[in-house]
UniProtKB/TrEMBL annotation:
Protein name: Secretory lipase
PANTHER family: LIPASE 5, PTHR34853
Domain of life: Bacteria
Pfam families with a match to the protein in the record: LIP
Length: 396
């Protein structure tokens, strides 16, 4: 998240006159089977303007069918990138499905769109993965780019978007073997998505050969996020969470909205069209006590319905992943509570999961600015070596 906030100073998002707009409008009829390809088009990945890094890969933008937050067939878009150098390991080139960290809720925030402008901050992780020979598929998630609202941090929606991205990307027409082994990768919202996919893969897509998953600072409990994120630099992101609840549970729309005053409702309305690049327009550092009718913080409502069920159903840790998982967490994270991540890890291990933990002991600094959260991304360095170890073992 912090990287995206920095990007807001260094660049702006793509303009509204995007020649790709038509691609993101789903056809009226499409194959409703999860993981089915709806359409694809050759694309490209831009130079990252603030690092100078270049992604040398064959890139394709895809639209595919996934299962949305409401358990219905839903078109989702994303990107498939295949490095031009051959895979040096044994067997098929592995496919790593990457989930983006928090990028916003507006359609212009879709990672596949930003990738073409050099503004998808996951490009730094993607570039390293490509340099190590992996094919990479990055999902845009439900409602980013395509019609509808983005169900932010929704376990079902993000998990199935990742899994079905793997299904559609394993296609020789994109340069990926149909039998390629699969790994999930993500940090922040992407870590939540990777953790969700790791939990759901065995039941949702038992045919996929998933050999590893990396979940960095995965925000496994929205109650913790509501506490630490309140009044932070990206405090207006509470609107993304609540709008995501409404997208997933539309029958409770009025109940969700009933706690908000006029200012709160305007925040919910406005942020639905914003990316993290617009952070300075999202009332930074304003506590949620300003948004509610009775002046209580939003976390005070989470033990009452319909918030209680909405929060509870997104919690990670109740289903043990069947593949090895690496969890990375900075103890000085100012957004994702390390204790919540600890609870998730303990629960997974108690259920028999193979979980490795990479801990950063970086001090809490400038709380509420996302500094402690962003700097935890250094854990991706260890994640790469761990992933390489797991990939090397595939050929044995």
């Amino acid at each position: 998240m912090l990287v995206a906030v920095a990007a807001s100073v260094l660049g702006t998002g793509p303009g509204s006159a995007d020649p790709w707009d038509a691609f993101y409008k789903p056809p009226q009829k499409f194959d409703t089977r999860p993981g089915s390809l709806i359409r694809s088009a050759p694309s490209y990945a831009a130079v990252i303007p603030y690092t100078g890094a270049n992604i040398d890969a064959r890139t394709t933008t895809v639209m595919y069918t996934s299962t949305g937050a409401r358990n219905r067939p839903t078109p989702v878009t994303g990107s498939v990138l295949v490095p031009r150098q051959p895979w040096k390991g044994k067997g098929d080139r592995p496919l790593v499905v990457v989930g983006s960290g928090t990028i916003g809720a507006g359609d212009q925030c879709a990672p596949s769109r930003l990738l073409r402008y050099g503004q998808a901050y996951e490009e730094m992780a993607i570039g390293v993965l490509l340099a190590n020979g992996y094919a990479v598929a990055m999902t845009d998630y439900e409602g980013l780019g395509t019609p509808g609202d983005h169900p932010y941090l929704n376990r079902r929606s993000l998990g199935t978007s990742m899994i079905d991205m793997a299904r559609v990307a394993r296609n020789p027409r994109f340069g990926v073997s149909a039998t390629a082994p699969v790994a999930f990768w993500g940090y922040s919202e992407g870590g939540f998505a990777a953790g969700s996919a790791a939990e759901l893969a065995a039941s949702y897509a038992p045919e996929l050969p998933v050999f590893a998953a990396f979940a960095g600072a995965p925000a496994p409990d929205l109650a913790d996020l509501a506490r630490l994120g309140d009044g932070s630099l990206l405090g207006g992101g509470v609107g993304w969470v609540v709008n995501g609840f409404i997208a997933a549970y539309p029958q409770h729309r009025d109940a969700f909205l009933s706690v908000f005053n006029q200012l709160g409702r305007s925040v919910l309305r406005d942020v639905n069209s914003y990316c993290v690049f617009d952070v300075m327009r999202m009332l930074p550092f304003v506590p949620t006590t300003f948004y509610t009718k009775d002046g209580r913080p939003i976390r005070a409502y989470l033990d009452k319905e319909p918030f209680r069920t909405a929060v509870d159903e997104q919690r990670l840790g109740r289903v043990a992943p069947k593949m090895p998982v690496l969890v990375s967490q900075n103890r000085g994270d100012d957004v994702v509570d390390p204790l919540g991540t600890d609870r998730m890890v303990r629960s997974w291990r108690a259920k028999g999961a193979d979980v490795t933990v990479e801990t950063q002991h970086l001090p809490l600094f400038l709380p509420g600015t996302f500094f402690g959260h962003g700097i935890g991304m250094v854990g991706e360095l260890r994640a790469l070596s761990w992933l390489n170890e797991k990939a090397a073992a595939l050929g044995r």
